[in-house]
Amino acid sequence: MSTADRMTDSYYLGAYWTARHESDESCATRASNLFDELGRVEPTWRQWHETGRTFKQAQKRRIQTDQASFLELFAKKKSRIGDGFQYWFWAGPHPDETTSVNGFCGSADAVPTSVCVIDPPSQGEVAERVLTAPVMREVLRSVVRCWAPAWGVVASQEYRDQASESGMAGTFVGWMTYFSRQWGAVPPLPSTVRVEPVEDLGTLVILTEERFSVANPEHVRLATEVHQVLDAAGLLRPL
């Protein structure tokens, strides 16, 4: 597949869970552990920034991602939503090659949903490095280990919009899809699909070792087949 074909999609990683009260210390530990993991995967993910009015201003707003820094952040009013904590950081060398990570955690309420979302760049050198099956698999596994979500996905936004009318978490199949043990057991899938445990937390389903693309009819056919099997097993449902 050519670079042009592979870049027709834009991708994100999302992990979701609900109604799990956690202290600021617990959330800070989980978040700090995740950023440590991200820094081991990709060099540009070792220095993070807060937002600014311009890219140049935001570059100057460097932040630390250790537990103490997250505790300091979570103590601020701007980081609170009800009984939960939120954060939004970005990293990258250029405005069109940035990665963002945002999350909401700690809330005992079912609404809003607790999340960890990673948006990698769609083009450029960083995208070429990270938008591969081995890297995104490791990133999703890291997110699962750190946050223990109910459901997670590495998805093409374009395929998601085709496959799910609502686009709601839990209702569609991604390039990679994670189901916690509590979500349900994964049934037998086509032999070309990779199915693996994530420690004792749940199961990861990887459709293809190639970068999934909505422009590839075989990828779409396989995703549709897997969607039907998982849907019949009751695994595709909203949080």
Describe, in short, the structure shown.
With 239 residues, this protein is α+β, with helices and mostly antiparallel strands. It has helices spanning 3-6, 24-41, 55-59, 67-74, 125-130, 133-147, 157-163, 217-232, and strands at residues 11-17, 48-49, 62-63, 80-81, 84-91, 99-105, 114-119, 151-156, 176-180, 194-198, 202-206.
What does this structure look like?
This protein has eight helices and eleven strands. It is α+β, with helices and mostly antiparallel strands and 239 residues long. The strands form two sheets. It has a nine-stranded antiparallel beta sheet. A two-stranded antiparallel sheet has the order 2-3. A hairpin with a 7-residue loop joins strand 5 (84-91) and strand 6. Helix 2 packs across helix 4 (67-74) and helix 2 packs antiparallel against helix 6 (133-147).
